[in-house]
UniProtKB/TrEMBL annotation, chain A:
The chain crosses the membrane at residues 28-47, 59-79, 91-113, 119-142. One of its GO terms (biological process) is proteolysis. This is Membrane associated rhomboid family serine protease. GO terms for molecular function: peptidase activity. It comes from the Bacteria. Keywords: Hydrolase, Membrane, Protease, Transmembrane, Transmembrane helix.
Automatic annotation (TrEMBL), chain B:
Residues 111-163 form the RNA polymerase sigma factor 70 region 4 type domain. Keywords: Sigma factor, Transcription, Transcription regulation. It comes from Nonomuraea angiospora. Belongs to the sigma-70 factor family. ECF subfamily. Residues 24-85 form the RNA polymerase sigma-70 region domain. PANTHER family: RNA POLYMERASE ECF-TYPE SIGMA FACTO (PTHR43133), RNA POLYMERASE SIGMA FACTOR (PTHR43133:SF51). SUPFAM superfamilies: Sigma2 domain of RNA polymerase sigma factors (SSF88946), Sigma3 and sigma4 domains of RNA polymerase sigma factors (SSF88659). It comes from the Bacteria. This is RNA polymerase sigma-70 factor (ECF subfamily).
């Protein structure tokens, strides 16, 4: 049997292009961040409404929250199931996440203070997001550094 | 460049390293799939395997064990396609976990092996492909097939016996 694969290596890479495309990765990270950020923001607005709200307003807030959660779920699903994030991508994604967490925390705190509901809860929730994003950034950097170290070891060994 | 270095570079996000890894393992993976499935399904399944490899690569914790990991994915994809046939084979061999001696036998003739492989039962065919065609060790075969090394040896021994019978039927003389 002297058969050969019908697809060349280049064909195979071309077929994998959608999975490796940076655009899909950016879309996934953006969907996740927008979803999480939106959920926190809408949730804060809803929670910090000073007076009692009519039923329709509650429904509108609930729908907005569900909508944002759906985007967050979609982004998370893309990142965990469909789109591989390599070490360098993870570092970039973690920093974007940290920046987004800080920005969301700042906006939510300002809104809470302006409405006179106090900044405590907003800072606590925002702080939690910032802490998680920071932990992910540290982990991503450590993983990348470990891979770089291993690469230099192996490169040195090959050159010898 | 070693597989480990290519894997590490690919894990860092280097597209060129990923392409090189694929170029290096494209034929061995396809050969394994082709020996287990017909030609029409082989290309499809091979593509599925590479898709799973690319998606799983960032999470591979032992880059030096790339080959067994790759063939574990390949095996899962092939098993999914062969599910019915494979389940029956597994049931038949459920009690066949006794390790037997693995005497050093004469080298298997590669060409003859290829011709009769398709006539062997799935499990025996698989172990012959991994061990003889992909040159994997008994331990690696055990890791890929999720069976003890002793079972690999007994399955190999049974596969060789079946192979010998098939070869004799076809008129080959040892």
């Amino acid at each position: 049997m002297t058969e050969e694969p019908r697809l060349s290596a280049q064909d195979m890479i071309d077929r994998l292009a959608p999975v490796l495309s940076p655009r899909v990765r950016i879309r996934a990270v953006a969907a996740l961040l927008a979803g999480v950020g939106g959920t926190v923001f809408v949730g804060t607005l809803w929670w910090s409404e000073p007076g009692p709200l009519p039923g329709r307003t509650h429904l509108a807030f609930a729908l907005f929250t569900v909508f944002c959660l759906a985007w967050a779920t979609y982004g998370g699903w893309l990142l965990t199931r469909r789109v591989p994030l390599f070490a360098t991508d993870r570092v970039i994604a973690a920093w974007i996440g940290l920046a987004a967490s800080l920005a969301t925390t700042a906006v939510v705190t300002v809104v809470a203070v302006q409405r006179g509901t106090g900044a405590g809860l907003a800072l606590a929730v925002g702080g939690l997001f910032v802490a998680v994003a920071l932990a992910l950034a540290v982990r991503a950097h450590a993983r990348r550094a470990a891979l770089l170290r291993r690469m230099h070891e192996l490169t040195g060994r090959e050159e010898r | 460049m070693t597989d480990e270095l290519l894997v590490v570079r690919a894990q860092l996000g280097e597209r060129a390293a990923l392409a090189e890894l694929l170029a290096q393992w494209r034929v061995p993976v396809w050969t394994y799939v082709r020996r287990m499935l017909d030609a029409d399904r082989a290309d499809d399944v091979t593509q599925e395997i590479w898709l799973a490899v690319v998606r799983g690569l960032p999470r591979l914790r032992e880059p030096d064990r790339f080959a067994p990991w790759l063939f574990t994915i390949a095996r899962r994809s092939v098993t999914d396609r062969l599910r019915g046939e494979y389940a029956r084979e597994q049931e038949t061999l459920a009690g066949d976990d006794v390790a037997t001696e693995d005497p050093v036998e004469a080298m298997v003739d590669r060409a003859a092996l290829m011709n009769v492989l398709s006539e062997l039962p799935v499990l025996e065919r698989e172990i012959l492909v991994l061990f003889y065609l992909e040159d994997l060790t008994v331990e690696e075969c055990a890791y890929i097939c999720r069976i003890p090394a002793g079972t690999v040896k007994s399955r190999l021994s049974r596969a060789r016996r079946l192979l010998r019978e098939h070869l004799k039927e076809k008129g080959y003389r040892p």
